[in-house]
Write a structure and sequence with these properties.
83% helix, mainly alpha, 0% strand
């Protein structure tokens, strides 16, 4: 079983190296097919923190990030995180599993169809995106999709979009990890498993950086998104049985 989870983590890290935010989106729905959703949320948040941390160290990321965009998104996410924590602590496991599957499949389908919302970037729109992301972060670990859709609607350049995603996901994930640890959800067994998987994550990240140089963005995107649609639908079917 450890080999299987290591493979999933490696592939997820490779996806994150290319997209800037795909680690939890790839790993969480697959792992819920094998593990309890609460364990998956904690594990993917901690590993996702390492993944986004590695990305944040890159010079091209730090150079392109726009704090005027990140700051209100992150601050508004803080308001949603307590709600997500309540869902994580008291929500039925089947509901958490279904939520992870639905968010994954819906986001992948929207991206495959090249759906792009149109937003004016008002304070209300910004706070809504951050608030929803905060709820999803502490309940499912999937804080990226609402922010990705919001940033695409703002029409940001590719490099700026990627940099903002990386930094936002790092901040939201770090805060979620702290809140879950404070609530007693971070067990020694989970931390030990995380430590065992970190070398695989680093290797997958390095492989993703290499793949990004030889594979077109759209080809990689279609492959990953098609996979996510399938996994999301399978996860939803499993949760509803």
């Amino acid at each position: 079983m450890l080999i299987t989870i290591a493979l999933i983590i490696g592939v997820s890290a490779a996806a994150a190296a290319v997209t800037g935010f795909g680690f939890n989106l790839v790993s969480a729905p697959v792992l819920t097919l094998m593990y309890p959703p609460r364990l998956v949320v904690v594990l993917t948040l901690v590993l996702g923190l390492a993944s986004s941390g590695l990305l944040s160290l890159r010079q091209d990321i730090r150079r392109e990030v726009d704090w005027r965009v990140i700051r209100p998104l992150y601050l508004s996410s803080l308001a949603g995180m307590p709600i997500g924590l309540a869902l994580f602590a008291w929500g039925p496991a089947r509901l958490l599993k279904a939520a992870i599957a639905v968010v994954t499949a819906a986001f992948a389908i929207l991206m495959l169809t090249r759906f792009r919302p149109r937003l004016r970037g008002t304070l209300f729109e910004t706070m809504t995106a951050g608030f929803v992301s905060g709820i999803l972060s502490t309940s499912t670990s999937l804080n990226g999709p609402p922010i990705a859709l919001y940033l695409m609607a703002r029409g940001l350049a590719k490099n700026t979009f990627r940099a903002n995603m990386v930094v936002y996901v790092f901040l939201a994930t770090a805060t979620s990890v702290v809140l879950l640890a404070a609530g007693g959800s971070m067990t020694a067994a989970t931390l030990l498993l995380t430590a065992k998987l970190l070398p695989v994550l680093v290797a997958g990240f390095a492989a993703g950086v290499a793949v990004a140089r030889s594979l077109s963005d759209r080809a990689f995107e279609v492959t990953i998104l098609g996979f996510l649609v399938l996994v999301g639908l399978l996860g939803l079917g499993s949760a509803l049985r």
